Amino acid sequence: MNIREKIKKLPKVELHLHLDGSVREETVWELLNKQGENTNYKSFEEFSKILSVDGKCESLKEYLKAFDYPIMVMQNKENLKRISRELIEDLSKEGVVYGEIRFAPILHISKGLSIEEVIEAVIDGINEGEKLYGVKSNLILCAMRGFPLEDNINVIKKGAMYLNKGVVSADLAGNEHDFPPEESKEVFDLAKSLGYHITIHAGETGREENIIKSIDITHAERIGHGMYAYKNPKIYDVLKEKNITLEMCPTSNLNTSAVDKFEDHPIRKYFDEGIKVTVNTDNMTVSRITLEEELYNLNEKLGFSYEEIIELMRNAIEASFCDDETKEWIKNKF
């Protein structure tokens, strides 16, 4: 059995996956037409090109434009439930046995849904997906950079009733360049006090100081991306000392021009130097990537052996925010 076959059969864990960046293109097109939205695109083939990134963007800001249409159709309970269930089905096809799916409830209330209704619809979708496809999952609720503080606090307060009932963590997402983590200190002080695990997008867009700030100020247990940790050797020490895991997403980082080519991605360097790293897709649709394909890329372009890929999966199991019973279930899959 060659390594591609081994990777295909390997049980996988995905820790950094955005719901709105992983909606099936066909589903977005169907639901837009059903809603009567005027997209100005004459065919699905033409439309599908704007839902993903072909190669590299100039920046993360440009990359985020691909989320506009998916969010337009994620404004009612039926659609949210369907999209969540379909994502679980898609994960099952690539051998993922456990996933942590993140989304920002505040982005899905423009048509009258409450924060609670949004969260409940997504929980219903992932639970139905587990029954149908056997993939276990939990949710990470994103606070959004640049949004009013009270809105993000409201998400954390309302989401607390679902802790350990489908929700496990809080995150800070969005435009990192213009909104540093300290602006959201109050949000994550509250999240920690309520019992959320915490992961923070940091060091994705060149501001390596945000990694340390996220750990010290917003209580991050994991860091989303952490691309630029190499700019400051002291960050290595903090990551190791506090056992902080990096949720790395190589193809997404290539798309946002954080690296010039896949071979330049620092995941290999971090892994070799003993930093806990995991590999993830970030946005399956926007980046046109699956976890299976990302693992192939690590092997072919960065020289990860099959044994090292297994170690990445073990890192993901240990860093996951699920309960001990679920962790044992995942380990037994190996």
UniProtKB/TrEMBL annotation:
Could you tell me which CDD domains the record lists for this protein? ADA
What Pfam families does the database record attribute to this sequence? A_deaminase
Family the UniProt entry places it in: Belongs to the metallo-dependent hydrolases superfamily. Adenosine and AMP deaminases family.
The EC number of this protein is 3.5.4.4
Q: Does the keyword Coiled coil apply?
A: no
Alphabetized InterPro entries for the sequence: A_deaminase_dom (IPR001365), Ado/ade_deaminase (IPR006330), Metal_Hydrolase (IPR032466)
Q: What does UniProt give as GO cellular component?
A: cytosol
Tell me what this protein is called: adenosine deaminase
One GO-annotated biological process of the protein: inosine biosynthetic process
Q: Which residue range or ranges hold the Adenosine deaminase domain?
A: 11-332
The record ties this protein, via NCBIfam families, to: aden_deam
What Gene Ontology molecular function terms does this protein carry? Answer: adenosine deaminase activity; metal ion binding
The cofactors it requires, by name, are:
Zn(2+)
Its keywords, alphabetically, are: Hydrolase, Metal-binding, Zinc
